Amino acid sequence: MGKDASELGRGLVRILETGDRALAADVVHADFRNREAAVSPRACSIPGPAGVLASGGLDAHRLQRAAFPYHRDCHEDDRVWVRLRMQGKHSGPFVRFRDGALDRAVAPTGREIDFEQMHVLGLRDGKVISHEAVRDDVTMLGQLGVFPAEPTGMFRMVGWRLTGQAKRAAERVTAQAAEAAAQV
Fold this sequence. Notes:
Layout: H1 5-18, H2 21-27, E1 28-34, H3 49-56, H4 59-64, E2 71-75, E3 79-89, E4 94-98, E5 101-106, E6 112-124, E7 127-135, H5 137-143, H6 151-162, H7 165-182
Helix pairs in contact: 1-2, 1-3, 2-3, 3-7
């Protein structure tokens, strides 16, 4: 017997927390598509479990894997909504991509973050086939001192870009995602 919608939702969160390849094969549909891959390295756009594992292999997830203290879900036949609370310390780069290229990079601030997210998962054939997220990025960026920009945060971001650290961080994130996807 297959997993119910709640188990599938919890399973996808668990994959992001742990990088569990066997669970990814069990929970993620071969035709899985992640709408959020548009702001991630290209490997996160790979269909199926490989794309999910690429997303979970990013520094942002790796640094915060233990930072999903609760989640709640509700579901219909073909969708499950998962509400998460992300807590942790910003100790790695927060990198955003656009069309596969570096868009923004926030240098590690050492600050604590605490914000909520909603994830909408599409279900088909007893597996997760799609993902969309609604995150409170404004709260997170405010907690990091990026929005509204604090002088120290602004100088850190400009310095990171001018010294090439932002580009190197994006290259590391891209390589990590590709490596995680290739191991499927």
